[in-house]
Design a protein that fits this description.
The complex is a heterodimer of chains A (about 110) and B (about 110).
Chain A lengths: L2 E3 L4 E5 L4 E3 L2 E3 L5 E7 L6 E5 L10 E2 L10 E3 L8 E8 L6 E3 L3 E6 L1
Parallel strand pairs in A: 2-11
Antiparallel strand pairs in A: 1-4, 3-8, 5-6, 5-9, 7-8, 9-10, 9-11
Chain B lengths: L4 E3 L2 E4 L5 E6 L6 E8 L3 E9 L2 E4 L8 E7 L2 E6 L8 E8 L8 E2 L3 E5 L1
Parallel strand pairs in B: 2-11
Antiparallel strand pairs in B: 1-3, 3-8, 4-5, 4-9, 5-6, 7-8, 9-10, 9-11
The chains are: A mainly beta (about 110), B mainly beta (about 110).
Chain lengths: ~110, ~110
Amino acid sequence: AQRVTQPEKLLSVFKGAPVELKCNYSYSGSPELFWYVQYSRQRLQLLLRHISRESIKGFTADLNKGETSFHLKKPFAQEEDSAMYYCALSGSQGGKLIFGQGTELSVKP
Amino acid sequence: DAGVIQSPRHEVTEMGQEVTLRCKPISGHNSLFWYRQTMMRGLELLIYFNNNVPIDDSGMPEDRFSAKMPNASFSTLKIQPSEPRDSAVYFCASSFRAGGGRQFFGPGTRLTVL
């Protein structure tokens, strides 16, 4: 079965601390993995995807096929990073996305 | 392009009433998705269309929910009759099928059923 698991509903860190939002997936094939972010009162927007291998706003994520994980990391969290983060999986080109439950990141001053 | 447009942004209605949510996808996109977001269940895919044709409606909760896409620039999600448990934020998203899975989301419609 296709599934995305984000084990933490809430992650609270202090400004300047490292942050890691966990994402594990279940998929029999070669999925595309994404991180979407939803800032307060804003629409969901793409943060990054594994095929781009890019760093956006200091965030990176590496696809680990052996551990079926796609954890999101940032070495120094900022208050403006506070938001809801969703990990998502797509099993086919341009097809539907399967979302995890989301992790709320709270960065305290 | 203004992005994905949804209307209304907020809807408050009474149980038993019909509710229609509207979505205008980004011009040129050929896939459209309807999601529901709740605290308990997170983001759930309700239905999606490719080239105006419904492809997967397995997420539609029950027969009270229906969705249409009469043309490439418009889609509706209808709930009839509405129930308090339908209260949620409903998102529409669109994508270009060959675009590698990236979806562009609308601002959402916050539905409250009393």
